[in-house]
Amino acid sequence: MDNDAQKPVQLIINPRSGYGGRHHMLGELRASLRRARLEATEYVTKGYDDAARCASEIAGLVRAVLVWGGDGTVNAVANGLAGSDTPILPYPAGTENLLAKELRIPSDPHRIVEILQYGRIVRCDMGRINGRSFMLIIGVGFDGEVVRRLSITRSGHISHLSYFWPIWRTFWEHNFPRMRIVADGRQIFDDFGLAFIGNISRYAVGLRICHNAVYDDGLLDLVVFSCREQTALLFHAAWTLLRRHPLKGNVIYKQFRNLRIECDRTVFSQVDGDVGPDTPLDISVAPAQIRLIIPHEKPNAWGLWPWKGSNGT
Ligand SMILES: [Mg+2]
Hints:
This protein is an alpha+beta fold. Helices cover 27% and strands 31% of the residues. The chain starts with 8 loop residues before the first strand and ends in a 19-residue tail after the last strand.
């Protein structure tokens, strides 16, 4: 990053992201940047395409892009910067902040500026679905229908509570589709169910569905829950909460580079929490597409305790 040290930091702000309480943190972040004598230019985005366009225009011209927003904003910026050397540091200002959690990025503005200056740069894979990019996780079937319902009724900021009625209604009304899944040229599933494809391990509300997924191994992780009726879904959900899948139940877990999903009818998907394309789906991995700035791992004495688990949080 030495050659880039003279360049300014670009702050891309999504003014609609996150909770009201987080907005005073933006002032603290600006103050922390000033204290560190980092020159920062700011851009307030009007939406997804605007954030992607801004990012593509500044690729190579700035030292790093600090994204103030949720996963959707980070996704837009990543799309704009894909293939460039300009690194991204996501500030967790959204509802879920799955990527920031996966990278263990804190919300303390002072720490963020430290990471910006002294953090480690890693390459991150992106996924492709029917010609568009994704960074986090795709859901096909049940999950896609929930997000579709939410998108019809949503107005303004989404909280976890916003999902309650869409999940409740989808739970009772959903007919599980028959899916034929071909991974790297081999058919691995032909039955009723729902599927998830992850570039990272985290899913909403702390679940880890694709629990072995890592963002820099050049592979995507697939989890298929075989499921024909509502009660089976409850069992899958329970085992997932207990992080015991795929040891329990009728579950496939597989890593792949190319995947095709066809269904017996048109089925919805969600991509990184937003409405995705309908089936059939062609999904692949695009290795090492973007650069991210992440904290250095600190030796953690708690990690030595047997009940803590090797992957921390
Ligand atoms: Mg991976």
